[in-house]
Fold this protein.
Amino acid sequence: MNAGRVGQGCLKDTVRAMGRRWTLLACGLGLALGSVVAPVQAIAQGAVPEAANTQNQLALGLIVKLKDKRTTSVVRLPASVRPSDNAQTQRLRMAAAANRKRVSYLVQKPTAFGAQVIHQGHYTTVAEAEAEAAKLRLDPDVEWVAVNQMERPASVTGQAVSLTGAYASHFWLKDRTATINGVANFTSVWTQLANRTLTPVVTAVLDTGKLSHPDLDGRLLAGYDFVSEVEFARDGTSLDADPTDPGDYLLQSEINANPTLYGSTCTAHDSSWHGTTVMSVLTSPSGSTVSGPGVLASIPGMVVLPVRIGGTCGALVSDIIEGMLWAAGVDYQGSPARNPNPARVINLSFGSVGDCQSSGTGDTLYRQTVATLRTKGAVVVASAGNGDNSGAAGYTAPTRPASCAGVVAVTALRQDGSKASYANLADGRPNVAGYYGIAVAGGDSDGGMNLLVNSGIDTASASFTLEAGAAGTSFAAPQVAGVAALMMAVDPSLTVDEVRSLLQSTATAYTSFTVPSAAPSCDTTHTDNCKCTDATCGAGVLNASAAITAAISHLSLNNTAFVAPDLYASYFVPDRLKSTQKSSGGGGGGAADDLSLLALLAAVLGLAWWRVRADVQARAMRPVRIRSDIRGDKR
């Protein structure tokens, strides 16, 4: 993984002296604006758009970049890419230019890349918008103009999903029976979606990264690596455009050589390959002889965005927030080039103990980011957590960020529909909890998930195996994320609020089936294997078939495509940028600043990966390095 990949063709020698992140910024800006400026220049030189291509296409006004009054060197380019004059001056200049060229508009708003969007409050044809753009391009105060065209989503036909291959060895893929009530009815969903017109949406998996395997290859979009600390990244770089998982192992010899770096609670462990396993739940194609069909098997092509946020010993809160924003297509200070494939579903399996309600910076960042992504049209799905990772019992509430307002918090069930012994409780009443609790099979002592994992102890091996005993809330969460993505593929007009509400309202009530075990009812004193209620395991068991039926019904009532707004997360500055602003004179300042900025993460919430071969024990929270333990699920 190489930082230079992001910035090929830029002024590397000039910018490199300012540090790697400025290379990313300068090159990212060039790439982002280049795609807009180039066609504008072509039109200005006399190129005429083809009428046949614009007659039936819609636009919402124009994107206008006014000339900057101050020449700025590329090496001094501000991270926020803001114009040199203030917002009021920009508004006045825009009004003056429009008046000079007799271009009318009712709405004006700034963009994240220093331009202005203007429109009349309704859609026009592209041809009409282009006529207005041609007039504005002649104004001496205008640098460029682009039509704010409505891009039509590419539709696909839902594929028939074969129930051959490895389907029979995965109980969680099958429909419910009288004794298996904890599964989501995926087989029925695939029948519903076969030959139906779908508009695929992107599901981002924020985890340890990806490996190459036939069940993933051709199904993954180009992602990004946000592990910001080279010492824990394992790939020799900070941020880069390669989300490949180099392994998250830690050797005892490394701890012995640098005990200060790793502290006393980041113990030696094998690589988990956690991200690859989680993604395989979604991506595995129809007829796979290894994993069986994945949740998204009905949708052909690339459907998952791998975003690497976890390295050795865990993930920084700052890196997780950065990954969430980038994945959804939200700009922020120092962000890489904008994600060309914004996700409408974010799947997270990292977290820490906490209710997300404090005024601390970590809780605040999570709350702000979840709210920002809601506005952007992206739903956040997170694992509820696996207690202390011993497998004995869960905690009485989800861990953060599953506990944050607006997040869909997913806990795990046994096959019979009772709560898995290790899984944290999750409330299904959003008016009480703030989050949206729901549950689905995640494996337990009555049967594991039988999921894909690489055989490599440290670095990746060419060999992959199926872990029959794989269990954890990390494997429940992508099932819910996948159903959310399928709902949006059926009806792209669905909002985040509607998706969350429909997931809960279509869930199967715990009172509708009988759990044969003698387990007690779940409550604050019974958090191991127990019988679920709405207040302890979420609103019910995920019912994928019912959720898709609801999405189909919604489509018949509202066929308006969702339009994601341009957003800039001004509240967030990555920790990697803040570190350069610290005083060089304070020996203890670095640790104090880190602790004030980030909230300590405790455990990757799914995969407690209890392997026979190793020292795979849950790693406790480290007292200084603000990161999350990645040994949360069991196998």
